[in-house]
From TrEMBL:
The keyword Nucleotidyltransferase does not apply. GO terms for biological process: secondary metabolic process. This is Amidohydrolase. The lineage of its organism: Bacteria, Bacillati, Actinomycetota, Actinomycetes, Kitasatosporales. It comes from Streptomyces cacaoi. It comes from the Bacteria.
Length: 334
């Protein structure tokens, strides 16, 4: 039998057309000010240089494919840089933005449709646009959509998102949960805590909203992939289970202990620690963990297969994470 391809489900594309669209619009300046507060000046300067060095890998399909060959990656699931969310945008701009982002991502992936699969964007700040955005992404041949951990005034447990979960479940679309920004704000504005602490915190909060509110009970067929190994939640799920068992308020929204739902979610492998990766596989099952690199950003790994090997998994578990499970989630494109 032919081995399944190696699939990296966490890789990004930069879309200059999106930034051209929002430049100068009311709200952008305030959003940039908030971003500066949350990250601090040192992080912003490092980010500026880091991203500048990586623009070819973020925008040129040929450069991307060459890098994939070096890594031993056969297929990438490419999602827009989370900096393109722009959840501050009004409804009209948000609709133009998601269509532009979906079109540009699909065009980027069309350079090598057998190796590049794409995800679109959903303007979570306008729940009424969520289903049209998903449908637009699917109509362009994308595999689903990427979302953040929340939008202003909306957690993922908000009933306003029920149509999105219904449609994603109905179509089998992938929903890639990738936070951008942490609401702890200035408490994380030094030493890049905004990312090293903020991202796993946001993942844990967002997944907890999906679990405790009963979203995963109502939509057992949802295919949600959580970036960064799901953050702190999978390896600290015992505390959530204890709350569910001992407190009626914690148990009021979902039918099972929170750990039950880890096997209804998918997680990427990007946890930067072989011991944590082994624990993630133990908690969620190898069939729920997918290879992820965060290509090509500095908080990712340039050697996702090496990081996976370091975890010392069984051959069967290694092959599932390497690409076996992802091959079943991403239909072939001939």
């Amino acid at each position: 039998m032919t081995a399944p391809p190696t699939v990296d489900v966490h890789a990004h594309v930069l879309l200059p057309a999106v930034e051209d669209l929002v430049e100068g619009l009311p709200g952008l300046s305030e959003a940039r000010t908030l971003d500066a507060r949350r990250n601090g000046p040192a992080a912003l300067e490092v980010n500026r240089v880091m991203i500048g060095e990586r623009v070819p890998r973020l925008t040129d399909p040929a450069v991307r494919l060459a890098a994939m060959d070096t890594q031993g990656v056969d297929i990438q699931l490419v999602s827009p840089s989370p900096s393109h969310y722009h959840y501050w945008a009004g409804e009209e701009t948000a609709e133009t933005l998601f269509r532009l982002a979906n079109e540009a991502t699909a065009e980027h992936c069309s350079a090598a449709p057998d190796r590049l699969r794409g995800l679109g964007l959903v303007p979570l700040q306008h729940p009424v646009l969520a289903v049209p955005a998903l449908d637009d992404a699917l109509a362009r041949g994308l595999s689903g959509v990427e979302i953040s951990s929340h939008a202003p005034g909306h957690e993922l447990s908000d009933p306003a998102y029920e149509p999105l979960w219904n449609r994603a479940e109905e179509t089998g679309a992938l929903v890639f949960l990738h936070p951008f920004g942490c609401t702890l704000d200035e408490r994380l504005d030094r030493w890049y805590l905004s990312n090293s602490v903020g991202q796993p915190t946001e993942n844990a909060v967002a997944l907890s909203h999906l679990i405790f509110s009963g979203v995963l009970d109502r939509h057992p067929g949802l295919r949600i992939v959580a970036a960064h190994g799901g953050g702190y939640l999978p390896t600290h799920i015992g505390r959530a289970d204890h709350a569910w068992r001992t407190r009626p308020d914690a148990a009021s929204g979902c039918a099972h202990p929170p750990s039950h739902y880890l096997r209804r979610l998918y997680f990427d492998s990007l946890v930067h620690d072989p011991h944590v990766l082994r624990e993630l596989v133990r908690a969620a099952g190898a069939g729920r963990v997918l290879l992820g690199s965060d290509f090509p950003f500095d908080m990712g790994t340039p050697d996702p297969l090496g990081a996976l090997r370091a975890a010392g998994l069984s051959d069967a578990d290694f092959e599932a994470v390497r690409g076996g499970t992802a091959a079943g989630l991403l239909p072939r494109k001939d």
